[in-house]
Amino acid sequence: MSVVPAPQGGGAGGTSGLYDVLELVLDRGLVIDAFVRVSLVGIEILKIDVRVVVASVDTYLRFAEACNRLDLEAGPHKNPGLPDLVGTVTEGGARGRTKGAISGAAQSVKDVVQQVRDRGDGQSGGSRSRKKEESE
Amino acid sequence: MTTYVYGIARGDRTELPEGLTGIGDPPAPVRVVTGAGLSAVVSDCPGELRPKRRDLLAHQRVLTEVGRRATVLPMRFGSVSDSDEQVRTVLAEHSDRYEEQLDRLTGRVEYNIKVVHHEDAVLHLVLAENTELRTLAEANRADGGGSYEQRLRFGELVAQAVREREAHDAALVRGALAPLAEGERPGPESAGWFLNVSFLVDEDAGGRLLAEVGRLEKEHPQLDLKVHGPLPPYSFVE
Q1: Would you call A14 exposed, middle or buried from its count of C-beta atoms within 10 A (0-12, 13-18, 19+)?
Q2: For labelling, which of A111, B14, B175, B179 has a CA lying 20 to 30 Å from the CA of B206?
């Protein structure tokens, strides 16, 4: 679980989960007809790492490969037994999505899966919706 | 000079934190426009207001700060009035509607919850639950990963099982959290989560909601819940 409390004391808060709050600021809230609404064209927002399970060849192959690497005898948080692959990936851990606390072993699997996913992205030209647009 | 409106609160003596500033560069001082027993929290609006991240955050910050002291109906970002006088007119015209909502939302806050699966854990889970998938996985592995067609077929079945699990877990999470809330509304359409939902809860019940989220994650290790709150009740104003 990651809990992102409201910003304190007038600070701007971190960027973690920023988009999750901004989508509410932009899409929800009271609208009064008499007031003009600012055009949202060209909106500058932070879109954080989104993961979409798309029914695509890429996804199928990625899942197949990930399953092949999983140790089916172990629980989801057990050591997946992939020491040769662990530590070869640094990019996966740097993704913007805020994760809850999970064990290092599970994280290792995640990194491997991430690696597979990134390769898939490279080959497919990025068919999945993984965006990171930041400005200002 | 136009007037930017952040939200509407009750009474005509809404206290603002000292030195509170809002949108613009430099940030404009926040003030109150009163009328019909209501207060609009406003600031001057720059001539060229664009939805910049800085201003979106300022909007959120003003509502959070004011919301600590009073119930406030949050405006959607970017609501601009011709003048303070027009704000007073609007307050007077719709005062009943705003009073009713202020009554309903007093002491309530919004929690937005987004859920994804820990991928490794959900793959473990669907394989553990499905003998056919497990047999296929083991056969592929014994076969050095399987042929392209075998991997494709297997991956498709896994993806289908994961989607079924997403629907199942979305219902599980909603079912666990909804009883703690007084209102529920789907979050804005956005990709990447299998569940995006906002709950309206009593501000004293936030702790119970978080405890239940913790319990869900502990009992269902495939769940990754992201909680945002307490927030102004953006999703529960009309």
Answers
A1: exposed
A2: B14
